[in-house]
Input
Amino acid sequence: MSARFEFQPTLWPTLAAAAGIALALALGNWQLGRGQEKTALGERLEQRARGPEIHVSTRELAAGEVELRRVEARGVFEPKYMILVDNRVRRGIPGYHVVMPLRLGDGSRYVLVNRGWVAAGPDRGRPPEIRTPRGEIGASGLAVVPGRRVFELSDRVAEGRVWQNLTLERYRQAVPIPIQPFLIQQDPEGAPDDGLVREWLPPDLGVDRHYGYAFQWFALAALILIFYVVTHVRRKHKT
Output
């Protein structure tokens, strides 16, 4: 007696497998396309950031005009309107981002400056002391628009100067000064020696995430095909 294998497809499982494979491939290709779009966007943003600096004055600028471009401003820091953005971890150490408005020109407008990171003290009820330079200074860096929705650890998102998250709308409601619709991430070069750490991560466009999803969808398509073939192969006995 000898045995051989035969492929014996049936209608409905074949249609279901074909539909599943087609859907998984389509979703995988869509994720690949999104990853390629994000890659191209990242390249455009890099080119934009390498462009000439935009001077920030009391004239209100549009956020889209300057977002993720290099900007520079001159003015005087206003410590009384400073906030500390909580839960900013650097190398496993919890701390704050120090955000302070810079008074521009005649004082008719301000621009927020993220001056950098400072470690939290052992007593969270006592925020750290921040050294602020006196007189007019220059602040240059990347313009970003804060306020992308993030998870907040508490319903009490602002306790005095310590905030869970910064949005321009929330800041405008809390502080009676006109501000530009963006924030400057201050460069370490040329910044005062104030003990703050200025290390900024590049914008996360989620490129790797899209490629990871694409791999999962293609793997699912392959798994459906393998399962379909294995379950439709029958052993045929021959005497």
Notes: Helices lie at 11-49, 63-66, 168-174, 207-231.
